[in-house]
Amino acid sequence: MKKFKLTVIMTIFVLMLAACSNSNNEADKSETKEKANDSTEPTTVEITDANGTVTVPVNPKKVVALDNRTFETLADWGIELAAAPKGLLPADSPYADDEEIEDVGMHFEPNLEAIAGVNPELVIVGQRFSGYYEDIKKLVPNTPVINLNIDVSEEADTPGENLVEGLKDTTVTLGKIFDKNEEAEKLTAEFDQAIEKAKSAYNEKDKVMGVIVSGGDIGFSAPKTGRVWGPMYEIFGWTPALEVEDTTSDHQGDEVSVEAIAESNPNWIFALDRDAPLAGVEDKVPAQDVIDKSPALQKTTAVSKEQIVYAPEDTYLNESIQTYSELFNNLAKNLAK
């Protein structure tokens, strides 16, 4: 009889333990489910581009990138592209030889239909392709198209500020879209540091000359409007060695005689080699060779004291925030000598 009572008691005890265990398991499952629901990541994000506010998907899979200020950032973050203008990609870009990427063609003769053909989830427009923004929106009406163009044209009142804020805004925007906020923050911090270094290194007195070397010729990159160098006069407070009227942002620079450049006697020459990153350019002459072999420039302070700084070789095609950080750090290093 005692054995029977003991068996009954043990059975009841086991059943109670099982019930408690089941109850705890259900509670754990419910708690886990609630936590999962709480941590659900947003599937879209609102960003502000050159045209307003746009809702875009987070981590889109089929991306078309047309803005060469974004290529290096996207590549560094491992973002795959469905289509891009391959002729605008630097030779060392991982996208350049990727046969899976559809070629949109060059900006002066684009194949915009290739964009629609890949059924993109996002199209990134900017710089050379910014003029096709409306055309692209019509081609892919159900796809978000963002315009990251930065206005450093002749019409811009503050090209220097536009360039700095534009590069930072572009980086932050890409960070939000591709869930790379920490990486974007790091890039913008490094960019700000490079700007401060270059500012501090300039003595506010030396005369500066920006030039663009293309086809063996030296073009004038004017303060404010000149390609690449122009906005930097505002950013760093440079004293221009030469100022002329009716200047442009032409990609080969303005036509100013080498003699006029020499007569201005710049303390520093900052040079962009336009041809260096371009494929298919025959008989390229490096910018350094052109400047070194120009008789008119040899007596200038910049050449005689070897105070010449060259932009990174791929700058003409790759105007990313990384490129400008590298350039500004190089300026700071040379100006501080």
What are the key terms here?
11 helices; single chain; 337 residues; Putative ABC transporter solute-binding protein YclQ; alpha/beta; Rossmann fold; ABC_transptr_periplasmic_BD; three-stranded parallel β-sheet; 12 strands; globular; five-stranded mixed β-sheet; disordered N terminus; 39% helix
Walkthrough of the structure:
The protein has helices at residues 2-38, 71-76, 113-117, 133-139, 159-177, 181-201, 232-236, 258-263, 287-292, 301-304, 321-335, and strands spanning 44-49, 52-57, 63-65, 83-84, 102-103, 122-125, 145-147, 207-214, 217-221, 239-240, 268-273, 308-310. The protein is of the alpha/beta class and 337 residues long. Among the domains are: 44-149, Rossmann fold; 204-320, Rossmann fold, CATH 3.40.50.1980. The strands form four sheets. Strands 8, 9, 10, 11 and 12 form a five-stranded mixed sheet that branches. The protein is globular.
Give me the secondary-structure topology.
Layout: H1 2-38, E1 44-49, E2 52-57, E3 63-65, H2 71-76, E4 83-84, E5 102-103, H3 113-117, E6 122-125, H4 133-139, E7 145-147, H5 159-177, H6 181-201, E8 207-214, E9 217-221, H7 232-236, E10 239-240, H8 258-263, E11 268-273, H9 287-292, H10 301-304, E12 308-310, H11 321-335
Parallel strand pairs: 3-6, 4-5, 6-7, 8-10, 8-11, 11-12
Antiparallel strand pairs: 1-2, 8-9
